[in-house]
Design a protein that fits this description.
Oligomer: single chain
Helix content: 25-40%
Shape: globular
Structural class: alpha+beta
Distance between the termini: 54 Å
Length: 436
Amino acid sequence: MREKQRVLLFAAKLGYQTRSFEEVAQKLGVDLAYATDRCHELKDPWGDGAVAVHFEAPEAAAHTVIEKFRAARVDGIIAVGDRPTIAAAYAARGLGIAYNHPASAEACRSKLRLREIFREAGLRTPRFQSVPVNPPAEPALLGISFPCVLKPTSLSASQGVIRANSREEFAAAAERIRKMLAAPEIRAKKEEDLSRLIVEEYIPGREVAVEGLLIEGRLHVLSIFDKPDALEGPYFEETIYVTPSRLSGDVQREIVRCASAAVGALGLTRGPVHAEFRINEEGVWPLEVAPRPIGGMCASALRFVPEGYGETIGLEELLLRHALGEAEKVPPRETAASAVMMIPVPRSGILEGVEGEQDARNSEGITDLQITARVKDLITAWPEGSSYLGFLFAKSDTPEEAEAAVRAAHGKLRFAITPQLPVEHPVTGRFHKAGS
């Protein structure tokens, strides 16, 4: 009997995409083995045989995985989310699997190193400086003018990213980031450089996201997503992605050229790529590049039409086939326009309930609605937050119609959110937020 092919999936324990990858693996008859950051003392609580690792120590995590699979068959590796990418790269080297170099993955996890590499490669880069969180130097002393942006060096999903238009706003933003980085839930992640932040000049313009696949060092762009909502600050919570892009062909070609140059400068060679760019009258500015697929449930907005398949496939199937060496020819995206809304968090507090779900689902053009926040959960708005209330999906003949569909459906949803009340500590007598 032929041994089943096996792919290692490095993923956070709460990743939305793991279920999709599992369904595809079952369809293809592939063994999907997990490496996740769950507690190593729990005896396989989800029954998935996952290897428990700590992604904040990527080399140690990779060693654990290598020892587990050294004598076993492993045909490919995929990383989902930002934190697992470095451990996946180290594990691939130890197992002899074609993948990105760990140094490239590490560079993508540092917003400071990204800026340095883009500048060295001659790509458009704003003035920037790395400064202590407490006390940060004023922008004028750094040669940076207002407006400027303050950001942590390694957090994801625009968490802690704040625009400042004056000295007063700069001081307030720096203090807010300092408090956020000192919070126990952030400290528990053990991210690097929590004592420093980046100050950079604000880049005006519209923003797009690029989803791509690297095959033998060449970037194949799968989709360019427009972000129709203005991301001008003071916080940068993303909301709507729409594809195909409505930008001109010339601008789209310039985005592809910039994306290829950024990927090349970082030394990435294989697998999925998700990248963010700003576009203005000066041209295309790379913001971030990550060696992983689009996050959360947003991958459901992408379907592809492989030649001879007779049906469309999702991004997870494309990536799994690529990891197995079966997708060296990248299929085109389906012709329908697609939109996804990451349902924004209007304010921090306790989610008490959601109304209007059925009306939203029945809206014209809507293909799916997933409310991922749970009732009685504490939800946190940006810039401290990084998780959404859920996801709305739409398809239509045009990008304009798909965007309008998710906006209309979102207008039918009502979220009851109550403030998180402070409670008195029984020993110190001090007041703090419940659960903190």
